[in-house]
Amino acid sequence: MRRSRGLTAALVLSLAGAGAGMGVVLMPSASALTAPVAFTADELPTWQPNGVVFAMAEANGTVFAGGTFSAVRPPDAVGGAEQEAVNFVALDAATGNPTSCKLAFTVGDGTATVRALAVSKDGKTLYAGGYFGAVNGTPVSSLAAIDIETCTPKASFHPGVPATVRALDVTDDTLYVGGDFPTVEGQTRERFAAVDASSGALKPFTANADEPGRAVKVSNDGKKVLLGGDFFTVNGSNTHALAVVDAATGAVAKTYSTIPSNSVVKDIAADATGYYTANEGSGGGVFDGRIALNPDFNEKWRDRCLGATQFVLPYDGVLYSASHGHDCSLENEFPDGKRNFLMAQPTDHTGAAPAPVDGFVHSPRKLGWHPNANDGIGEGIGPRVMAVAQKDDVKYLWVGGEFTQINGKPQAGLTRFADTGDVGAPTTPVASAASFKPGEVQVRWRTSYDQDDSKLTYRIYRNGSATPIQTMTADSLEFERPQASWTDTTVKAGQSYTYRVTATDGAGNTSALSATASVTVPVSVQSYPDKVRADGATLYWRYDDTVSPYVADASAGGNTSGIQVAAPALNQSPGAVSGTSTAMGFNGTSQQVYSDHRQSVGSSFTVETWFRTNTTRGGKLIGFGNNTASNSGSYDKQLYMTNTGRLVFGVYNGSTRTISTGLFETYNDNKWHHVVGTQGPGGMTLYVDGQNKGTNSATGSTPYTGYWHVGGDSLANWPNRPTSNFFAGQIDETAVYPTALTQAQVKNHYDLAKAPTDTVSKVPASEDTYVNQGAPATAYGTSTQLAVRGTSAYESYLRFTLPAAPAGQVLKAATLQFKTSTQTGAGTADTVSVVPVTGTWSGDGTTFTTKPALSTTPLGSITGVPDGSAVQNVELDTAAVSAVLGSGYSLGLTSTGTDALWLWSSESTAADAAPQLILTFGQK
User: Fold this and answer.
1) How far is 132 from 202, CA to CA, in rounded Å?
2) What are phi and psi of 886, to 5 degrees?
3) Please, are residues 921 and 812 in contact by the beta-carbon 8 Å criterion?
4) Which of 483, 489, 501 is nearest to 441 (CA)?
5) For residue range 300-339, what is the model confidence (pLDDT) as tens digits?
6) Residue 590: left if φ>0, alpha if ψ -120 to 50, beta else—which one?
7) Is residue 383 within 8 Å of 342, Cβ to Cβ?
8) N or C of the chain: less Cβ packing under 10 Å?
9) How far, in Å, CA of 14 to CA of 248, rounded?
10) H or E element: which one contains 879?
11) Angle at Cα 611 formed by Cα 609 and Cα 614, nearest 5°?
């Protein structure tokens, strides 16, 4: 949201250059991007100016850049001496290095600058506009024509333009000019003019505007010219910032009145399907985005993102834009916050366009192309101009401006991206896993981010296997990374599993493996979470996450994960419901969680959560708002606590509609409480601890898109507003439903919180060893591997200290878990049996000669363990293990075959290496 008038003040050109050297960068082979994006987001080495680039053009594999600078230097990574470049540089499109063409744009009084460049249709002439009085000493007047082959100014082309030229477009015989000037060749031509493309002679075209011209674009049929700028009138007709005029006479053909008075048009571009404008404003209520026009010049769609759009470039069905977009809330995309300097979106909607909102059709959604820049020097705009150039069958998107960084690395004023050579891998997924009933594990992860691929392929690996158990795709954007999930239905009750996830882009670049997510499958249904899922929750946060900033969504298919702000305390115990699930702690000053993607809420909904606190400052428990980490401007559908500990449920439907607990019904007593707010056709209801605390008849709320917040967000102007927007205490088991739960459902949830759950004990081996018939006198108690084979014999022994069953529970399942080693051929095709050890043994003393006696009755077995290091599970006889609970117990691993099994011992440092027993206890 930035605007300037007149000539930019002189820049201090004092950036130091680096040493000598011009290296040629060889492009990697072609690679896939997520269509329709045509360019990678990986920056290429490019020479850089010591000032600002305002204009670009290209011809025959050469890119021309103009602006306000005095020298160019090599990329920082290459190093080398700088070269003089006075407001202009020509560069090889493929290498990013300067060519032999040297032009100096100078002026006797003031600061020279080049603000516009255009190439003739035959590719032989470069036209330059700006504020300058000479090119390589040849006198000109802010407008010049350059012979591209010889790199020399055409002395005969000398139209007199007394002020800055800001825009150019050219046909076969006419050069159209826009800028700050009042006259051309001494004749009145206010801000727009046309001259003969060969001689520079002034043409009759007259389109007088009252304020500066910033953009000119000849229509596709050559009969009209689109004008853009700051103006409010053209030839006396009221039309602000945009107009269409006759290409021959300048007569006004179409006016516009829908661009706010505090906004201007900075650029106009065209493709075969229409025209596009770049818009910038200053102050409140501005229009800072992009407009698409049909071939008849009527508006097709409008992108109302805020962020001073400087340039638009339609290419192969995609509109690339240079801006510092920071708020796309009106497009139902990212909220006000981080600046997005380079963006891409389709030039048109797929299928029917959406219905207008506030009189405008929404723009097509942003695509997965997010090179990063910064504000830079000068006005702090960031990127200002773009151009596409081709050389040796590779296409390059060049970007110029005042940025000083690209993708977090130093790079000033110029950068480029190619249509090949995608080398950036996606971010590493953040994964977790949960199981709520026998036979199912939900594996879920926050989708990864890739700068130039929005559709990524995810591979899920179970128990350390090198072969994925599932492969799937999911979409994500830089500003929208929803949870993805997959349900593993091949798991067995009572067994533990580990999962890791990778993300791969279209070019095959693959992220690192996620951290290991572990889960034990219960032997009975976990009553509380199963009921929440069955009742249709579309957001269910249990707060069992072990890493920041991800909060997993445990709903059956909602995939709405949470993002932690300011590092809330994880794994607070005990949680609100029975079992090992934990809560999250909030400090009451800055910490919260918001949902991972923008959504809308229907006329019926339920919000539910548990909390524990002794705060006297109140705060928001859960609510809906239109921002993420910053305070929302629109916010309702919320449960909050007052300073005295009363609870309030409220929505906004033109006024605040609330229900509160009674004056003496306070809940800041440091005990767990269950609170639910519902709205539906029957109105609103507030429940606390399973009891109805009040109703009203309000059946709707103001519609808007936004994010769910837990632990904090704005509460300004709400009844009994507490001292703090942020809640201090613990929160657990948060759920959102697209329906109004009944009183019976709410009471059932409250009661099930105390329902018995499984207890899982993981008992690692306290000692282990193996014996080897081929070395009968050797003890292997310190070995990092164990072995099992019939002939020539290996036997392995494992010792465990078994716990007693918890009070009121019995053993429901027992599993031996081990992990095959990385040794070649570690798996086996034979059957391995697990038997009790009846004799005595020790790790440091037992050898094959002194091996212990074994029972002949197996507790369990496993057949056909594949090669490759992976976790394996062996179901054991529950009754046999139950009989020895609370004592020391040894297991032997034996085989009658000839194919050895190699597994990690408890001495190994490999991940998940130690053999262990998984014991699941449940109610009698």
Assistant:
1) 19
2) 80, 15
3) yes
4) 489
5) 999 999 999 999 999 999 999 999 999 999 999 999 999 9
6) alpha
7) yes
8) C
9) 45
10) helix 878-882
11) 155
